[in-house]
Amino acid sequence: MSKANLEFHNVTFLYDTASAAVFSDLSAEFPIGWTGIIGANGGGKTTLLRLAAGQLAPTAGRVITPGKVIYCPQRTDDPPDQLADFNTALDAPACQLRGELAIQPDWLERWPTLSHGERKRAQIATALWQQPDVLAIDEPTNHIDRNARLLLAEALHGYPGVGLLVSHDRELLDVLCTRCLLLEPHAITLRPGGYTKAVEQSHTDAQRARSLYRHTKHEVKRLEREEATRRHEAAQQDAKRSKRKLALRDKDGRTKIDLARVTGKDGAAGRKQSQMQGRLQQAQAALGSLHVPPKQTLGITLRGQTAPRNSVLDLPEGAIALGGARSLHHPALRIEPTDHIGLIGPNGAGKSTLLRHILTQLSLPADKVVYLPQEIERSEAARILAAVHALPDAQLGDVMTVVSCLGSDARRVLATDEPSPGEIRKILLALGMTHQPWLIVMDEPTNHLDLPSIEHLEAALTQCQAALLLVSHDLRFLRALTTAAWQIAPADDRPGSDTVLTMRRRIGAAYDKTSSSQ
Questions:
Q1: Which of 74, 224, 251, 375 is most solvent-facing, going by the fewest CB within 10 Å?
Q2: What is the model's pTM?
């Protein structure tokens, strides 16, 4: 494995369909170890990884790679190219990774039935086994339960090459990364430390920049007032030393003016004005050179409604097939109009399957239900974007306002042919909210979203009057939003056993238990 760095030299990149460059004259050097890539949805994080992997070519500049590069994308639609070889390899690294990340030998054959968390583990294990010089990973903890996250973090920690990590998982970024590249609208900055340290330093620098800007602006205004005073004094002095208004016989007056010119006193006010103009020009130039990071004032209101009925779901006790002769057994399930429910459990337990089954059993009007799946296929994303473009102007404005308030550039989103996974999820949510739904069902809603977007979505859902059913491995998110928990767990310790759903009202105990056991 090479010990050289990954280098970006004056890289500019512009998509063919875009009017503005994603990067302009970007230069950065990535040494051995993990670098976190931090930025808003659509800010260029995935583009940077694909440039590093050679999947995209710079419009200008060059990318120098130290050797073999593997890119692990956000999406898990297709199995990794080397998964079959990895599954049958008998070398120590393959055996160790299969054990550490609990990779099963039949996953390639069962790929369409695997949970997205299982697919993600297989994707990353296969990449690590190939021992690339550069490993670029896009959202590795999407869909992964807590136990798998811990295993994954340990596996990635031992990677000896150049690592680029895009993630909304603050804990993972803090544990793995020794530096972070912050992709912000006003600047791209490489900072030492994990996410917490890098963002804190960014906020501190932004505050200092705003303070310096305010001080310099105040100084410019003070100098403008002083220069105006000096200009007025110089004009008065100029008037006094002029002989034009003196009579020819006023010899004393003319003598005084001549004496002032000889001694230099007549030009003192003008010289002071000239000096003040120089100081003012310097201060104005200094003010013009300062860039003040804009303050983001994101915020969103989700206009859900409380359903005018006794319940939004009444599902009798039953069992749901999970594939491979496995079933999920559940008691009678009821969701009342004001319920906020969190659905928890390990990968592969049947959470997404249960959600899809529930959606088929609802008796609500279709436009009163918002469903946000774990993943949105490319074809479906294209259909959603086409539907947005076909909206009347007023409704389009409402939808894109929600997208903007969740931290994405609405104009850029509308201009692209393929929004990022985070952006298409924001669009789908915004489309559904225009109908003021009675029930919102979300499967891993924080996946693919940047960190500010997660915080504002959480705040908005707290105020939403619709019923909520949320699947998430982000226990902090669930604690903030839900008042009850449905927990799915294996029926026994045998591999491939059935799973059982249990309803819990003491959500704190349920989530704490999940946190310690996953």
A1: 251
A2: 0.65
